């Protein structure tokens, strides 16, 4: 029942040939003896234009949410808990945009 789009996606698994598995590198082992997980590819691109677009979009969205919550306060209405929560949420969205723009861990640049 349902369309193809409503069905969950199943990952495609490839079976390695015996020759490929015999020449594979051994699994890395951590200090505790557990095998280390392989390094995963980043989920999103970290190019400068992508970060500028998404970071500035989040800053703009956070500013809109904040100023929409602040508008009744300018008219003289006392702020309620919902208004305060909306302002905090708007500030949080804007801060998330600043973090994307700043790239504090430097993941956007290759080191090796």
Automatic annotation (TrEMBL):
Which BP terms from GO are recorded?
mitochondrial respiratory chain complex I assembly
- Per the record, a Pfam family? DMAC1_Dmo2
Please provide one cellular component term from the Gene Ontology annotations of this protein.
Answer: mitochondrial inner membrane
Q: Which domain of life is it from?
A: Eukaryota
| Residue ranges occupied by any Distal membrane-arm assembly complex protein 1-like domain in the UniProt entry | 46-92
Return the protein name.
Answer: Distal membrane-arm assembly complex protein 1-like domain-containing protein
């Amino acid at each position: 029942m349902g369309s193809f789009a409503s069905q969950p996606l199943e990952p495609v698994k490839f079976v390695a040939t015996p020759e490929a598995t015999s020449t594979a590198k051994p699994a890395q082992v951590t200090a505790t003896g557990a095998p280390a997980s392989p390094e995963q590819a980043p989920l999103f691109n970290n190019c400068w234009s992508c970060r500028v677009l998404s970071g500035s979009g989040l800053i703009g969205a956070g500013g809109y949410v904040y100023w929409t919550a602040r508008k009744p306060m300018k008219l003289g209405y006392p702020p309620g808990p919902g208004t305060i929560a909306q302002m905090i949420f708007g500030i949080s969205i804007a801060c998330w945009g600043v973090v994307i723009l700043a790239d504090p861990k430097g993941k956007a640049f290759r080191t090796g």
